[in-house]
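JOB MANIFEST
job_type = single_chain_structure
chain_count = 1
residues = 306
[input]
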Amino acid sequence: MPQTVKHRTLGFASCALASSFWGCGFFFGKIALEEMGVGAMVLYRFLFAALALAPLILTHKPTFNRRDWSTLLVCAFLGIPLQFLIQFSGLNRTTVSHASLMVGTMPVFLAVAATLFAHERMDATGWLSLVVSTIGAALIALGARHATGSNSPTLTGDLLVVLSLVIALGWVLLNKHLMGRHSAIVVTAYGAAAGTLMLCLIVPFLYGLPPIHHVSLKAWLALAASGFLCTAATTLLWNWGMTQVPASQAGVLLNMEPLIGSILGVFILHETLGPSARLGGFLILAAAIVITTRSRTRVREQLPST
């Protein structure tokens, strides 16, 4: 019994730490975007992540069949080049605090995805949370629409972040399918490696060669932290935590991501949140907490990194 309690505690701690690191992703990304474009920033982030995950590739051999490899490649494309290039294009057009609050819609998106694709039934509390979260996202977008100034959020940026979350659902569902037959470490490591190789082909074609010279130590440190902490470590911590505790209980810890991201944006980068954005953020976080603690809907999917 004590051993079980210890694993349960460590499982919650692992999920909480993963969500906290995810919450720093936009912050580190914004620092790097001051010196390079979106494509270069995303590519360097995943090269650092691939470097961290390389030992796992060497020590864990995959047992994928041809169909599994096809699923893994589709999953990698959705979850890495497509999702992250769109997401950080959005961040480049908005603020860290706005982008982070938009991520707070993810638990509700997952509940809807579970209802549509995983044959789970969402109760009235879940549907009410969906409505409240949607209103919150609309209020944040409305605040961006009326904002002015070069460092202000934009409606386009906020909507691109939301679009990336919708794409991320495909990654979530395919990851769940693969991890039903293979270990989380193998799926994580080989999926990240495949996605990084795709970035190496796509980024130079769409954005040109990434800069190497004239990049400050501050930017390199932000990229390294983004790759090691916000990508490699978060995915491994979250996937391991999900083997120790029910996802329906750990889901509430995801709310640390938008909370920490918005705090970093406001207090470190000196961003401002208007009245509608503050109200919208409150509604999104409240809806996410309700759907993960009060609703009978069980959302078992694994989450991607931010």
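[summary]
The CA atoms of residues 43 and 291 lie 34 Å apart.
The chain has one domain: 2-293.
exit_status = 0
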